[in-house]
Write a structure and sequence with these properties.
By secondary structure, this protein is an alpha/beta fold. It folds into two domains: 190 residues, 3-Layer(aba) Sandwich (Rossmann fold); 129 residues, no CATH class. It has twelve helices and eleven strands. The strands form two sheets. A six-stranded antiparallel beta sheet has the order 6-7-9-8-10-11, with helices on both faces. A hairpin with a 2-residue loop joins strand 10 and strand 11. The structure holds iron/sulfur cluster (SF4). The site of iron/sulfur cluster has 12 residues, from helix 4. The site of iron/sulfur cluster (SF4) has 12 residues, from helix 4.
Amino acid sequence: MSNPRRCVALLSGGLDSMLVIRIMQEQGVEVEALNFKTIFTCCQDQSSQAARDLGVRMTVVGQEDDYLDLVRKPTFGYGKGANPCVDCRIYMFDRAKVFMDQVGADFIVSGEVVGQRPMSQKRKDLNVISYHSDLEDLLLRPLSAKLLPKTLPEREGWVDREKLYAFEGRSRKGLIKLAKQFGFEDIPTPSTGCALTEPRFSQKVFDLIEMPTLAQRWDFELLKHGRHFRYNPETKVILGRDLEENYRLVALHEAPDATSTAILCPENYYGPHAMLVGPPHADALEFAAALTLRYTRDVPATPRVRIDTAEGSSVVVAKAREDADQIQTVATM
Ligand code: SF4
């Protein structure tokens, strides 16, 4: 075997990706870890810690705005939520291929297990992902390699196929056993770490992308904050759920790429801040002001709200409205 070869390993910080790195290290392959971050993913600390534990260098790559195109309209559809996993994996591997060339690595490894996840890890999906990311022969899945056609690293003897695995299905027993053999002290619990797989967050994503205006990055960022109320197809009101979120909404409203048109702050009562996204018509502003009353315990006789728009600031008296009292959130998470 003509080692050392170098590979790029996608590292999420989950057990599967950690095992894959250790398997490569056991075979004498040098590993460059790559963590893919989107505005919907979390767990950066977990992947950094995993890289430290495994003794590999990790590079974080972020999504570009074109990632949102595949969230809006994925070629291969969604999973149970708004997760376009097959498209997302293709996108990740596209980036990984560029990185592989930059660092002079020979191939890519990832922790996919045949049949482990309903979307993106069915055998057919794995083929689709390899094919469309233009990596086919250079993408090795060590945990299920023995169930899959031989890749170039195996044919060339860069890795020993006999020392790879044939894991299949959702059970984690075999993976945990292997982790113990490798002496892993902390075994991460399974989690996608991706808000797009969460049902309530997905409702907000679908609400956004089904609207006539093309949602931009800022609009997707906003989904992570506050209670969202759909007033009409063009207009949404977002309420802060606590003091921190109130400040966050104000900061988001002031961001250069903000598409919000007004921010409403109670002046003489403790209530949520409200952000308006959509045309700041008088009726929509009244509705937003009424919503702040709905989440206020002690409403004064004359509840005043300051409204900041591009036209300037004004103070109005908020009035309760039946539609504001009855409307349901799109989702609160
Ligand atoms: S769970 Fe999220 S980050 Fe992971 S593949 Fe699916 S869409 Fe991409």
